[in-house]
Write a structure and sequence with these properties.
Helix content: 40-55%
Strand content: 5-15%
Oligomer: single chain
CATH topology of the largest domain: Arc Repressor Mutant, subunit A
Number of helices: 5
Largest sheet: 3 strands, mixed
Radius of gyration: 17 Å
Structural class: alpha+beta
Order of helices and strands: EEEEHEHHHH
Distance between the termini: 24 Å
Length: about 140
């Protein structure tokens, strides 16, 4: 039985978010996707090639019972990038935020980022890893 409970993946396993045939967020490789935006919980609807399993239905029901607004709608890939960017704003210094923005919002490769910020590709890799570890730690302890 596959565990579809919400969680962050272990550090040695990347979190992958799958896209449907239209390029919209569908689900994770072993998780359903829920995004908290502007006071509501948003999750992809049935048109996004999701697995409409018991875990997803349970989260939606429990959240609704607790008074949260749950909306099933398309989630653009850019929304996941925006969520990462907003989390980074309060946790990372200017250089780290710039590197994360270039990598995950602008889809730049590490060599290009290094040229832009004035450091080696290897150092960019280390900075990205450290910044993502910090973001992961905060996210794990906040929810």
């Amino acid at each position: 039985m596959t565990d579809h409970s919400p969680r962050w993946a272990p550090a040695d396993r990347p979190v992958l978010i799958l896209l449907d045939d239209m390029g919209r967020v569908s689900e994770g490789t072993g998780e359903n996707v829920f995004v908290v935006r502007e006071g509501e919980i948003v999750t992809p609807g049935h048109t996004a090639s999701i697995l409409d399993g018991i875990s997803r239905k349970s989260v939606i029901q429990i959240a609704s019972d607790m008074g949260y607004s749950v909306v099933e709608r398309d989630i653009a890939r850019a929304e996941t990038r925006l969520a990462l960017s907003q989390l980074a704003d309060g946790l990372l210094d200017d250089r780290e935020r710039e590197i994360i923005r270039l990598r995950f919002e602008d889809d730049r490769i590490q060599r290009e980022i290094g040229e832009r910020v004035g450091c080696s590709q290897m150092h960019v890799s280390r900075l990205i890893r450290r910044a993502l570890e910090r973001l992961r730690t905060v996210a794990e302890h906040s929810g």
